[in-house]
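Posting for a labmate who doesn't have an account.
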Amino acid sequence: MRKIKYNKNKDMIIAYYSFSGKTEKFINKLSGFNIININKNTIIDNPYILVTPTYNIGEVPEEVNLFLQNNHKNMIAVMSAGNRNWGSNFAVSGDKISNKYNVDLIGKFEMYGTQNDVDKLISYIRDYYESTNI
């Protein structure tokens, strides 16, 4: 098993998982960040934000769970995608990860997300840097 290390000092890392391509379409709306498409072997040594879909009407993707086993300590926040047709299970993977690892839930978005969703993520990153004086 090959471990991948990423170490970019003072550059925000946005880690994401996308099986169907919907979360990746959201990520492609971002620019100016270190963006990493994760898998179970990825290791991230610096603070990062996780963007993940929700599968099977309320589940964290297994690949994300495996990634988090070795990477949860550097996660500062999560943002999740889902389908509003799932009602209370809409993008609930973000709630589950936020609660389990005690990190901020930035927000939830449907399908590919909107510009407002992108702006919310960018605003969180800006506020994070301002509050940590990085």
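Reply:
Got it, the structure tokens are right above this. The longest helix spans residues 115-132.
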